[in-house]
Amino acid sequence: MRSDRSQSAPRGLKIAAAAGLAFLHLPILLIFVYAFTTEEKSYQWPPPGLTTQWFAATWARPDVWQALGLSVQVAAISTAIALVLGTLCAAAVSQTRFFGREAISLLVILPIALPGIITGIALRSAFSLAEIPFSFWTIVLGHATFCVVVVYNNAVARFRRTSGSLIEASMDLGADGFQTFRHVILPNIGTALLAGGMLAFALSFDEVIVTTFTAGQQQTLPIWMLEELVRPRQRPVTNVVAMVVVLATLLPILAAYYLTREGDQIAGAGK
Amino acid sequence: MTPAVAFQKTSRHFGAVRAVDAVDLEIKPGEFFAMLGPSGSGKTTCLRLIAGFEQPTSGSISIFGERAEGVPPYRRNVNTVFQDYALFPHLNVLDNVAYGLMVKGVGKDERHRAAEDALRLVQLPGYGGRKPGQLSGGQRQRVALARALVNKPKVLLLDEPLGALDLKLRESMQEELKQLQKALGITFVFVTHDQGEALSMADRVAVFNDGRIMQVGAPEEIYQRPASRFVADFVGSSNVLPPDFVQRHAGQRRWGSLRPEQIRVGRDKSGDGVAARVLSRHYLGAATKLALDVEGLRLHATVPSGTAVPEDGEHVVLSFNRDQLHLMEEQA
């Protein structure tokens, strides 16, 4: 037993781990602190005073609501598209064997492996080549390219662990394709889809690079925040929005993590 | 009488692979029919053709007189017990068993009552609330059986259903399946690679090799009068005798087969019979199996326990009744 788990790690390692975590998370805390500062023109440390007035100020700003609304709509629609396409693609790749299966698998994953700037430029030139005006839908399309990947990855992993004979058993017992999907496939891949969907939503919600290339005059929330940083007034409003976004995206990601972890146990229980 | 299942020149080819090749087969209603063969011999593909998971490349299949080509699995009155049981992991045992009735639109109370009855039939009453993951292999097998039987199929297909069970459980399930089949009167079609299982359970056995049926017949017939060298060797490891040997001892130039238990081993060297030398001995409990060298030919003989067993390397004399030496149809 060389790696005894109950034995405590050396002190140096503990300090290094703590320093690493602090480096990762203190800046986020800083954002939270600045949401309460009384200084509105620059980020001054320590904050000269604390106030909650920026919450009311943020609430009253119509441009915040507009950007938030757009982001939610874009994320919701691209996630919906990704759920349908990603699931279908995962089903095809994992349930059947055909020529070029591995190549398709790679091509689907490519958009998330490529730098966002490549996807952005590619989409922008494709849109202008096809003379499609930049609009809400071009943003949705841009986001769907990487949302599909997330859903596909989750679904394909679950499909691989789901025995193919379950589908045959269902058909054998008299269920047609739709009934089999509804009663056997969906319950078995449901949590994977929920997790994939949540991750896709979160990814779309804070996407900047692809959006700058595919948006016209519209401002999604992250774009709005970028522009807000160069404006001299009401800076803490950005921090308030950032804080809300952190909380709003952290919860779905945590939920997704727990859902897929439980999924392991469900899938393992069948064997 | 309309056969339960009939194959007419049925083939299923996968590219160049002839999984099932021009098979003619008739399974009678109410019969316990076994498809026996080594892996890759086409027996499972035949089962999948009946279930509807595969479609024939050529030839026809009919189930109780109705043409089955192009009919999807969910419109056939045939159910399958899968090799890995394929129980739905997200449903409890009762809902697993009631699944077939559920998709047919039977009401909840009625289908749950039918599922309880089916569970009682396979001796698992009161197990409805458990999840498949909480059951042992033998129990899952019974649930899979109940899930198929609750639909009252005309033909029940079983794909190596006892393969994953340990020996003791397998023997008791063999008896139970046989009794169940008699009581229900349903046609059972059973795929196995275990010749003992096929012989002990089935009314008739079809022996498969390379996508073709080598012989169909009652277990005694297959065992006592194998039609070819393959059947003789695969079913119960009979001694396959080459034409030269058969001509010397039975007067006809044909391939022959002789069961190990039909050979008498005498230690009296002066006696009448075939001289042989003992190569090795394998103690099997009820008998001892001897490997013998006869004029360069390797034969097996079994000696019941209780009688004296010759030593390794000892010279012995073999004798057998000439009418027990079975001459095969297959030409030399």
Summarize the structure.
Chain A is an all-alpha fold. Chain A has helices at residues 11-34, 53-60, 62-95, 101-113, 116-129, 136-161, 165-172, 177-205, 209-214, 221-229, 236-269. Chain A is globular and about 70 Å long.
Summarize the structure in words:
Chain A has two domains: 11-51, no CATH class; 56-269, MetI-like fold, CATH 1.10.3720. Chain A is built from eleven helices and no strands. Chain A has helices spanning 11-34, 53-60, 62-95, 101-113, 116-129, 136-161, 165-172, 177-205, 209-214, 221-229, 236-269. Residues 264-271 of chain A have low confidence and may be disordered. Chain B is of the alpha+beta class and 332 residues long. In chain B, 28% of the residues lie in helices and 31% in strands. Chain B is built from nine helices and 18 strands. Chain B has helices at residues 43-51, 93-103, 108-121, 137-149, 167-184, 195-201, 219-224, 229-234, 243-250, and strands spanning 5-14, 17-27, 32-36, 58-63, 66-67, 78-81, 155-159, 187-192, 204-209, 212-217, 239-241, 256-258, 264-266, 274-283, 287-294, 297-304, 315-319, 326-327. In chain B, β14 (274-283) and β15 (287-294) form a beta hairpin. Chain B starts with a strand and ends in a 5-residue tail after the last strand. The relative contact order of chain B is 0.12. Chains A and B meet through α7, α8 and α11 of A and β6 and α2 of B.
Low-confidence stretches of chain B: none
Runs of chain A in which pLDDT lies below 50 for 5 or more consecutive residues are 264-271
CATH topology of the largest domain in chain B: Rossmann fold
Give the distance, in angstroms, between the N- and C-terminal Cα atoms of chain A: 30 Å
Q: Could you say how many structural domains of chain A there are in total?
A: 2
**CATH architecture of the largest domain in chain B, please?**
3-Layer(aba) Sandwich
CATH homologous superfamily descriptor of the largest domain in chain B: P-loop containing nucleotide triphosphate hydrolases
The biggest sheet of chain A, with number of strands, parallel, antiparallel or mixed sense and barrel status, is:
none
Strand coverage percent of chain B: 25-35%
Strand order of the largest sheet of chain B: 6-7-8-3-9-10
